[in-house]
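Pipeline run #58 for the internal structure catalog. This entry was flagged by the ingest filter as a single-chain record with no existing model, so it goes straight to prediction. Upstream metadata was stripped on purpose; only the residue string is passed forward. Reviewer on rotation: M.T. Logging verbosity set to normal.
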Amino acid sequence: MHLLAALAVAALPTVLTIDDAVRIFRERGFDLLIADAQIAAAEGDATVAAAIANPQLGATVGRSFDYDARACPGCSATAWSVALTDPSALSDLITGKRGLRTDVARSAVTAARRSRDDALRTLSLQVRQAFLDAVLQQAQLGLARELAESTERTRALDQRRLESGAVSEAELARAEVAALQAQQGVDLGEQALIAARLQLAFLLGVREAAPDFAVDSTLFERALPETDLSVEALSAEALEERPDLLAD
């Protein structure tokens, strides 16, 4: 139910920022939802492994109708039995099997959590890369449209100059070809932007028709954070923060 509820989410913001993209991915990302379900399953297995089986009490009663108990003093045609057992609970405690099962189950929970953390790390990078690609495609489309407008103005100007005899038909033809090529660049840019948006929407957990949204175009205008980017600093950070290295 939680998985289905997480997929039934509201539409993306009209203008999506990179911080919004990462936040939405943490909330809706399908791969993260699967990883959370795996953690819950591992925790359930750990609870089962640590449980001690309840004792079992059984009783049976039977009667033989073709047996004459009067022929045997002290005998009875009714037979009954009572049994009390523990399904290996005591032997598991004595031999340490329960402790081993618990340790293995707890290790599985830890591994599932580390796997989820590593998936969050790698997939968050994919979300950021997809967002940057969408911003780049959006900027390139804007540039292509400006170029198309410029070439169209040139074509229109050459058309008027041809009518006044200032240019030849060959020059007008070159202007028309340039305008068509620029418009083709706009069409290709629109297709590339749609593909980039679809990829980003997929990573953000959108499972229906992709909503119409724009990405924050001011991202490339921001200053880079003041961070030590030396090899030593990056290696130390990786050893401290990467879940896959911590698991080793």
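catalog note: The two ends are 34 Å apart (CA to CA).
catalog note: The longest strand covers residues 56-63.
status: ready for reviewer M.T.
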